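Section 5: illustrative case.
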């Protein structure tokens, strides 16, 4: 482990310890008698108890399913429209009011309006799509715009096939922006889905269990599910970052050396 990585790791540990200390102080002082914010140990105990229930995995997978569906739809249409508007500026101008409207509308107001239109089961997916779509669209548009025009011009001069231009120029240039968009968008997507689940009450979901615990005055359980939601978001973000590192070995020298060593070993064996 290099000095930079060791320093970064120690800072992360210190930051985590500060959060736990502040959490413990807050739970032991102003909110101790109400029980709204349990201590870290009590929260861990509640989480373990919740994990033993049959509803735990059902709620987690139900929320993840809604999050994945809404994000895939958002990212697909955002990428498609970003490519179209890059070459057809008129379509971009026509689409701009819709992007501004989705980006500016308060999430809570959007949830309340769409609850009457699409119903509780479809509410999280639709709301997450409308909230995340502008973010993905703007990131993908920026990714395409950042592609080096000199390389594109050179490829046209040497009459390089279009598919080679896409795989050799566009894709490597866009990948960092694409994964940045995916990580930021999916993290926001999970938050919006859970918020919509709290308001829309779809059966067996993280948001539903948070509200159910609150209505039964089990504030410790409700807070524990909030912690579970944060952990779920962090796990998904970590997995996406790992996938990004594997897809972009040229940006991470350590991974690149591993791939190079394996390739050399296979070549020597042949």
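Designed sequence:
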């Amino acid at each position: 482990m290099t000095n930079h990585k060791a320093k970064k790791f120690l800072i992360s540990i210190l930051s985590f310890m500060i959060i736990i200390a502040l959490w413990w102080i807050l739970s032991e002082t102003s909110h101790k008698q109400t029980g709204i914010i349990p201590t870290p140990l009590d929260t861990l105990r509640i989480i373990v108890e919740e994990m033993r229930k049959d509803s735990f995995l059902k709620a987690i997978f139900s929320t993840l399913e809604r999050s994945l569906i809404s994000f895939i739809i958002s990212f697909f249409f955002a990428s498609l429209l970003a490519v179209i508007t890059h070459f057809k500026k008129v379509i971009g101008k026509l689409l701009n009011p819709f992007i501004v409207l989705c980006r500016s509308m308060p999430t809570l107001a959007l949830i309340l309006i769409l609850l009457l239109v699409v119903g509780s089961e479809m509410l999280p997916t639709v709301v997450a799509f409308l909230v995340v779509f502008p973010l993905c669209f703007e990131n993908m548009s920026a990714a395409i715009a950042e592609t080096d025009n000199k390389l594109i011009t050179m490829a046209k001069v040497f009459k390089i096939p279009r598919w080679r231009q896409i795989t050799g120029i566009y894709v490597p240039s866009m990948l960092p922006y694409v994964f940045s968009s995916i990580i930021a968008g999916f993290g926001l997507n999970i938050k919006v889905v859970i918020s919509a689940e709290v308001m829309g009450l779809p059966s067996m979901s993280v948001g539903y269990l948070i509200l159910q615990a609150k209505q039964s005055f089990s504030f410790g359980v409700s807070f524990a599910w909030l912690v579970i939601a944060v952990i779920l978001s962090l796990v998904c973000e970590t997995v996406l970052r790992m996938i990004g590192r594997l897809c972009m070995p040229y940006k991470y020298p350590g991974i690149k050396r591993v791939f190079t060593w394996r390739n050399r070993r296979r070549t020597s064996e042949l």
